[in-house]
From TrEMBL:
Its EC number is 6.1.1.6. It comes from Prevotella herbatica. Homodimer. Residues 188-502 form the Aminoacyl-transfer RNA synthetases class-II family profile domain. Binds 3 Mg(2+) ions per subunit. It is found in: Cytoplasm. This is Lysine--tRNA ligase. Mg(2+) 1 binds at residues 414, 421. Its cofactor is Mg(2+).
Length: 578
């Protein structure tokens, strides 16, 4: 990178970096710096009548220099604590450069430093560390966007949602509460694992690259496996592999991992997302509803200090069991007034288009897809408190066992919370002949143009033919679960690194393009620094004025470049106007 592509502060920090090295100070030392305390623990355990020696390390977040003594604030992985630094304490000998030059001039906000000293309380009552030794552990080359306040107005706030998600590392440093969000996410996952493990179920891992995108209705990402010279799919679900393990004899298996669906992005969806799927032998969807209620109530208490309630936007959501249970066709009738239970595909399509005025209906939609669209538009968003929507039509559920008492329906539920689906569960289909027919029906939908229809997985069918016991399974979207349990309304808030659109960059003529009109490489960077990003930008410049502008850059940064003549610059301008 050319130095002129850096900001003023970045250039100064690199100069400080070089000065440190010239003084024999390594700004990135390799040696271990063994700490023995954290900021929060120091404050919690402070005793007035006891001097405690500590070794701490962290990022310097502020500094107040007051002659021969200064205060700094360092941020470690737990919190922040003030440090008192006296020149004569850290420089007991004649050489005072460590304080006068290194600390005061060459160190910057954002640098990592190590402190050896003792804990004390200042005259204002703030628990602090009196430094006896100070060590540079890592030099920061980019300035942090530290919030400043003047007349009650905040400046330099790092609050742009897109920038926060794109530069999560900065978000975590400067914005209070962000790290706590992800610690709570870790609590969600840890509690879920403990819950399953305590029930005797086994965590497993299944392939992320799959030859068939199965286990869900979704559009997959496609990649190419060079060693085998075949196209592969990033998995859209873990279901079919986990069921193979039930066939193989596991009592219960679960997997928490990434799925990938090549679909849209919004506040509730990310193409790469985390999902948990659990399968337990000899259970049905009624058992799974009760199990899910207990699981979610347990997680909510763990994340929210024992409370079964959490605020999400304007809604206070209660995860106290039991949850409401409502068949999907009853839900549609309740919200639209139309009873679809005895209707065929054409009749439902007619109701959707003519009576409900739905514009999203496509000719490729089968009966199940039509019902799904109607439910999604008129019902889903209305269920704020946890509600099990049950007994889906068979056309919507190709992997689900037929309902034991309701012809045409299946033993399936989706859990709706705060207007969105959180979980999907079945009494799993274990009849291999029935399963093969369902797959064929899905292929017929694919032939009609439904690009989310399932592909037949012959190996999965083969596994069922060896016999799978009665089984219940569930999938829970971990990202949505975390949104609910932590009280966040955007999926980007609970994903450390969500997928983002490509970062916008200012249009610039390349150095090669500048060279084509006669501008040497070094002066191409100078032109950019002077504000001329595109060759077209110099069309209306006067040669003498342009010479003066780039000459000021040359002088300011002590570049020492030989100044181009007015005639040379006029030639650049002439070529830019061609």
């Amino acid at each position: 990178m050319n130095v002129l592509e850096l900001s003023e502060q970045e250039i100064i920090r690199r100069q400080c970096l070089q000065e440190l090295r010239e003084m024999g100070i390594d700004p990135y030392p390799a040696a271990e710096f063994p700490t023995n305390a954290f900021s929060t623990e120091i404050k919690a355990e402070f005793k007035d009548d006891e001097q405690r020696d500590v070794v701490v390390a962290g990022r310097m977040m502020s500094r107040r220099i007051m002659g021969k003594a200064s205060f700094a604030e360092i941020q470690d992985s737990k919190g922040r604590i003030q440090v008192y630094i006296s020149r004569d304490d850290i420089c007991p000998d004649e050489d005072k450069d460590l304080y006068n030059k290194v600390f005061k001039k060459l160190m910057d906000i954002g640098d990592f430093i190590g402190i050896k000293g003792f804990v004390f309380k200042t005259q204002t009552g703030e628990i602090s560390i009196h430094a006896k030794e100070i060590t540079i552990l890592s030099k920061s080359l980019k300035p942090l966007p530290i919030v400043k306040y003047k007349d009650g107005v905040a400046y330099d706030k790092f609050d742009d949602p897109e920038l926060r998600a794109r530069q999560r590392y900065v978000d975590l440093i400067v914005n209070d509460g962000v790290k706590d969000t992800f610690l709570k996410r870790a609590t969600v996952l840890r509690t879920m694992r403990n819950f399953f493990d305590n029930h005797g179920y086994t965590e497993v891992e299944t392939p992320t690259l799959q030859s068939i995108a199965g286990g869900a209705s979704a559009r997959p990402f496609i990649t190419h496996f060079n060693a085998l010279n075949v196209d592969m799919y990033m998995r859209i679900a873990t279901e079919l592999y986990l069921k193979r393990l039930i066939v193989g004899g596991f009592e219960g298996v679960y997997e928490i991992g990434k799925n990938f669906r090549n679909e849209g992005m919004d506040k509730y969806h990310n193409p790469e997302f985390t999902c948990m799927e659990l399968y337990v032998q000899y259970k049905d969807y009624n058992w799974m509803m009760t199990f899910t209620e207990e699981l979610l109530e347990t997680i909510c208490k763990a994340v929210n200090n024992g409370s079964t309630e959490v605020k999400n936007g304007e809604n206070m959501i209660s995860f106290k069991a039991p949850f409401r249970r409502l068949p999907i066709l009853d839900a549609i009738k309740e919200k639209t007034g139309f009873d679809l239970s005895e209707k065929n595909e054409d009749e439902i399509r007619k109701i959707a288009i003519e009576d409900l005025k739905m514009e999203s209906i496509d000719e490729s939609f089968g009966k199940g897809k039509l019902i799904d669209e109607i439910f999604g538009e008129f019902c889903e968003g209305t269920f704020i408190q946890p509600t099990f929507i049950t007994d889906y039509p068979v056309e919507m559920s190709p992997l689900t066992k037929m309902h034991r008492s309701k012809p045409g329906l299946t033993e399936r539920f989706e859990l709706m919370v705060n207007g969105k689906e959180l979980a999907n569960a079945y009494s799993e289909l274990n009849d291999p002949i029935d399963q093969e027919e369902r797959f064929k029906d899905q292929m017929a939908l694919a032939d009609k143009g439904d690009d989310e229809a399932m592909i037949i997985d012959q190996d999965f069918l083969r596994s069922l033919q060896y016999g799978m016991p009665p089984t219940s399974g569930i999938g829970i979207g971990i990202d949505r679960l975390c949104m609910l349990m932590i009280g966040k309304e955007n999926i980007q808030e609970i994903m450390l690194f969500p997928q983002m659109k490509p970062e916008a960059k200012m249009p610039q003529s390349s150095i090669k393009e500048w060279a084509e009109i006669g501008v040497a490489e070094d002066w191409g960077y100078v032109m950019r620094k002077a504000g001329f990003n595109l060759i077209n930008d110099i069309k209306d410049e006067k040669a003498q004025g342009l010479q003066q502008k780039i000459g000021e850059i040359n002088k300011k940064y002590k570049l020492g470049y030989e100044k181009p003549s007015v005639e040379d610059i006029q030639a650049w301008i002439d070529k830019a106007n061609v």
